[in-house]
What does this fold into?
Amino acid sequence: MSTGAIIFMTLSWAFVLGLMAWAFYRLLTHKAHHDPDGIGPKSPPMPPAKGGAK
Amino acid sequence: MASSTTNNPNEAWGSRIGLILAMAGNAVGLGNFLRFPTQATANGGGSFMVTYFIALLLLGIPLMWIEWGVGRNGGLYRKGHLPGMFAAIWKHPAAKYVGVVGMVVPLTVMIYYTYIESWTAAFAWFSLTKDYWGITTQEGMVEYLRSFQGIRAEGATVYHQSWTPYAFFIGTLAINIYVLSKGISGGIEKLAKIGMPILFFLAIVLAISIVMMPPQPGIGSSPLQGLEFIYSADLSRIGEPSVWLASAGQIFFTLSVGMGSLQAYASYLSKKDDIALNGIATASTNEVAEVVLGGTIAIPAAVTFFGVAGAMAIAQGGSFNLGFATMPVVFQQMPMGNLLGVAWFGLLFFAGITSSVSMLTPTVAFFREEFGFRRAQTAWILGGVALLFGLMHVQWLQYGFLDEWDYWAGTFGLVLVAVLETVIFMWIFKPENAWKSIHMGADIQIPRIFKFIMTYVTPIYLFIILGWWGWQDAIPILLNERAAGGGPVAAENIPYITMSRGIIVLFAVVFLVFIRAAWKRNKYDDRKGFELADRSGEA
It folds into this structure.
């Protein structure tokens, strides 16, 4: 494989694997009382105010 | 999450992981392992990958949130189908009828997709029993595949009894309907919890087996040269519109957006449940299956055994030849090849079935919610409908019957649904309400740039795709200037093509009648909307 292809592949894999790892880390480490799995925030966040979430 | 349901007291996701696996199972399909590598190879490797990731950020992930948002919002009003979801957002008499595309598309796609899925079950069996062992050329395997499909050219060898494809189709359909009849947590979630780990395990085993292969004598190519094909740092084609459209199309198909099934799954969530992080988790799981695993199996194997030029020709021959003709030839040359064959076709089967069971969910939801039918009863009745029309595909595959459905429902229809839901959710519902809706119960704050992207960039992207495909493909196909499956239209195929299209129109008419009857039966007022069904999040 050429160096360019190795860089491309590494970046592509790192992006998707990193995104998945981040998503599942957040998902598994945030505890929620309303969740039978025991994951999620302690209380549901309020919907963002008009103009979007701050 | 998922403790409270909005759609039915007996229908809820049992766990968050189960929901994400089911959503990811819905997204991970045959396209991850067959379509992605061929598209990447045919569209310039690196150029394709750059545009692919841009499309993921501007089209795929925003659409994922839109679909979860449309679905969860519909579920708050006990609507698990697009006519109801659209009517919940857009208080206009036309909304429910516009939603008919979200009923026709998943039913139509499920029927022919299950038939294709049955090929993978059949080939897993043929691999286990070494039925095709000894056929060591691609041409020979294409003939073998045609024999199974019942397409028999004059003088071609007949390998299978004529009932074989029917038996596998009926068996595959029965499994689908059985899972569907068992409900959300008892059927679909259980299947995802079993099927998805198996799918990833098989994909990892295959990827490692192929990457570890030494160069073959007389060929001289290694699996790493196959990876070079997909990830070549060639950016010379990045200015070509066709590359941008191909990557946008791949992102679109791989995430299973525009199908109505993600929305139906999301309708079983309450306003306390997160959809922002779940959407990212689902999309990223699908991307790992596609980019990391899908890119590491078929093309590297083809390059190793057929050389660079051979693999390029295979990629241009299409996804099915790669999966059903090339890979069986490869497995025959590998140690424990028949077991690897079972792993490959088993992987495709699990990828297929976790997608196909989701496709009837909106239709089942419609009849349950609007007419009070029981789930099992509805599932088996729909199974009967799928059997009736699916048998037509088995019988008339060679006449382009399936290609028509694949184009009008499985390609054009998906983009149409996505355009409609994006316009209704982001423009008619208004960006503020859409943004607020997506953030109800959210575990993460989505960067605000995505609000702009979802309001302007994603719809424009979709309109360009719809317009381009409409101009390039839909009009010539509709006028029979060329076949939906490519090439010229054979005169003998025209009656079958007409019938194929006629059935899609028939589905639309029947669903429109049912929608009208449902609204009359339940005395819905289009201008007032529905009553909230979920009170769980209220103080």
Notes: The first helix of chain B runs from residue 16 to 27. Residues 45 and 230 of chain B are 4 Å apart (CA to CA). Chain B touches chain A through 50 residues (CB under 8 Å). Chain B is about 70% helix and 0% strand.
